[in-house]
Amino acid sequence: MNYTIIGIDQSLTNSGICIIQYRHKTENISYFNILPKKLREAPRLKYIKDELQKFIKKFKPDIAVMEGYSPNSYNRPFALGELGGIVKLTLLEEQIPTYIVPPKSMKKYVAAHGDAPKSVIMAIYQLKEENQADARGLAEIGRSIITDVTTTRAQCEVVKMVKDNPDNVKKKAKKKKRIPRVSKTKQTLF
After folding, report:
1. Rounded distance, CA 163 to CA 63, Å?
2. Residue 86, pLDDT above cutoff 70
3. CA diameter of the chain
4. Is the CATH number 3.30.420.10 carried by domain 3-164?
5. Euclidean distance between CA atoms 185 and 4, whole angstroms
6. What strands, in cross-sheet order, belong to the sheet with 15-23?
7. What Å distances lie between residue 173 and 95, 131, 146, 169, 170, CA to CA?
8. Which one has a higher pLDDT value, 180 or 41?
9. 26-34/15-23 β-pairing
10. Class of residue 129 by CB neighbours under 10 A (exposed 0-12, middle 13-18, buried 19+)
11. DSSP letters spanning the chain
12. What is the pLDDT of residues 94-113, one digit of tens each?
């Protein structure tokens, strides 16, 4: 089975990206950051969207896994909502099936505990950059979704929760044929 997964830990100042590619029994894991520097407001959002599109065009991921919103986030919730919307819209426009994972669920998947500090996630993946470590955890959840392989109970629980979430886009939408209903009493179409 060949696949490419993009894990996205979106941030207004430093988004972490992890790409896991598995081709012909060879795995390649790449890390990137999207750094909008001193841009603000709409120019920053456009920059992040453009950079994300470059990664999508270059790596052609089969699925994307992005970090969901933290319910306790009180720092600039509107700006973070705009950013999340831009990332979701970009993935939708590129027709990438997308899964959204709450931060605590990603930590539970990686460290078996939803309150694990970022330093633990970084140590598990031997990374020095926390956004890349979070993106790696998200990409690993994507790998479990594609391969249907998990190794711990915590991983099983997280993958099941993510797959069962009706807000996650699992497949590209297909148009359904509309079948006219027939009234039992008058036998007319309406």
Report:
1. 13
2. yes
3. 71
4. yes
5. 54
6. 26-34, 15-23, 3-9, 63-67, 98-101
7. 9, 31, 18, 8, 9
8. 41
9. antiparallel
10. middle
11. --EEEEEEE--SS-EEEEEEEEETTEEEEEEEEE--TT--HHHHHHHHHHHHHHHHHHH--SEEEEE---TT--SSHHHHHHHHHHHHHHHHHTT--EEEE-HHHHHHHHHS-TT--HHHHHHHHT-S-HHHHHHHHHHHHHHHHHH----SHHHHHHHHHHHH-TTS--S---PPPP---B-TTT--B-
12. 999 999 999 999 999 999 99
Domain ranges across the chain: 3-164
According to the model, what pLDDT value does residue 172 have?
A: 47
The answer to whether 124 touches 154, Cβ cutoff 8 Å, is no
